[in-house]
# Entry
Amino acid sequence: MNLAAPPIHSPMVEPSADQCRILVDRAFAASGVKINPGKTEFIHLRVSRRLNALGLDGYDAYMDLLDADTAGSELRCLVEALTTHTTSFFRERHQYDWLVREGLERIGERGAGFERPLTVWSAACSTGAELWSAAMVLEDAARSPGGLRKYQLIGTDISRPVLKKAKGATYSAIEIEGVAPAQRQRYLMRSRTATDLERRPYYRIVPELRERATFEWANLSNLVGVRDFGADIAFLRNVLIYFPEDVQERVLSAVVGRLRPGGILFTGHAEAVSPRAGLRSIGPSIYEKV
Ligand SMILES: C[S@@+](CC[C@H](N)C(=O)[O-])C[C@H]1O[C@@H](n2cnc3c(N)ncnc32)[C@H](O)[C@@H]1O
# Structure
């Protein structure tokens, strides 16, 4: 019989106002993501998981660790903890519907997909659902008579864990809920072994799509890792909202700078685009580079 008393876990004390400010300032400097330092509960909720993982009992120890972190590895984990990666297949479905209805034809008239590959860039791709949804739409077009012939997909994000998942291209039954049955059948393979906790299988994007895509680390706020290429379609969705106005303008200008003339930009529905950005609105959260 084990007579040892069970361990007593005292609840971790929330970070002080000063510690919150330091945490959000550091995350901002590394990512451009601005968090209100007054949101103590939110900051604590996100960062305390990191403390638990490191076996630290309080924020003083975590601050010491951040100070000693000359390689920046803990700073990356802090950014990871404080950023949001929510995404889903066919999010803002009307944008994909627009591509099918008229967008691809419009872009194709400029040679994209025919004389040269049509390039799609998902600029803050998270776990890849946004880019793989676009891949399904493009592959449908490629398989239809007279449809586009060549395309390539590029996904970038500041978070290495989400990029790993995007590259692995494997999703749970819940994650693929937004994919229509016909596209599921064409573009998702049922995993033979992996299952979730309720024994539902996982699904993997088929190799024909996987071989078209590359996923790369890049930081939109300072452009480190953002290559120079010409995109025909750029998704810049649900990331601008986390940046302050000056960073938003810088990021938008960098993304528009990488769009070909006539290229299409998709934003999130809550994201406003500056009239100075060199874009023309052609639909809800759909812009064309002028
Ligand atoms: C809410 S998710 C949006 C995902 C996807 N675009 C969508 O709308 O479904 C925001 C993503 O932006 C990424 N992110 C945040 N700051 C970034 C930065 N400075 N550079 C690149 N990606 C960043 C996060 O890692 C996260 O994956």
